[in-house]
Amino acid sequence: MVKRSRGFTLVEVVVAMAAFGFFLFIIILMTAEMEKNRQRYPVNFMAHPQMAAVLSRMRRDVEDSQLYPESVDKYTQTPKTLIVKMQASDGSLEDVVWDFSTKGEAHRLEYRVGALASRWDAKGLPDLDAEIDAFPIGSRYATRIKAKDKNGQLAIDQLFTPRKH
Asked: Which of 119, 117, 165 has the alpha carbon at shortest distance from 140?
């Protein structure tokens, strides 16, 4: 009877190192991809979920919009203010004002029959310099929101297109 010494064979060690190297390679690729995305989009939507909520609600308002009035109450269309006219759930018309004039905050004001009906404030947003503009798409216009971080790097660049009514 032949007694074998304890230990690993060379083949077993090479296979284990190859498997470890393969997993290490995958982790390095994933880390590089995450870093590339972080540099492309400096707003961390996981750390600032309210920013995603603002963009989502604004998208819905623009999609449901029918007109872009020039002014409502004390607000006028500016690069920091968006005003849309849309049909409310009860069939009446309402004016919605998005105000980004205060850094780190977004305000959504809803006016019905000229009076303030509701207000929604998002505070604690990333310190971004937001701008709202019209963007031509064929014969229609979309709403474009761009925001730059404190280093001047583009953090948000999204187009919202109204639905055809």
From this structure: 165
> Residues 97, 100, 101, 105: is their CA dihedral positive or negative?
positive
- In this predicted model, what pLDDT tens digit does every residue of 29-73 receive, in sequence order? 999 998 887 776 666 666 778 888 899 999 999 998 888 889 998
Name the residue ranges covered by the structural domains of the chain: 11-40, 49-160
Contact between 127 and 149 (Cβ < 8 Å): yes
What's the pTM value of the predicted model, to 2 decimals? Answer: 0.70
Q: Residue 158: name the closest of 137, 144, 147, 148 by CA.
A: 144
Give the pLDDT of residue 42: 62
Q: What pLDDT is attached to residue 111?
A: 93
DSSP letter for each residue of the chain: -PPPPSS--HHHHHHHHHHHHHHHHHHHHHHHHHHHHHHH--S-TTT-HHHHHHHHHHHHHHHHEEE--SEETTEE-BTTEEEEEEE-TTS-EEEEEEE--STTEEEEEEEETTEEEEEEEEES----EEEEEEEEETTEEEEEEEEE-TTS-EEEEEEE-PPP-
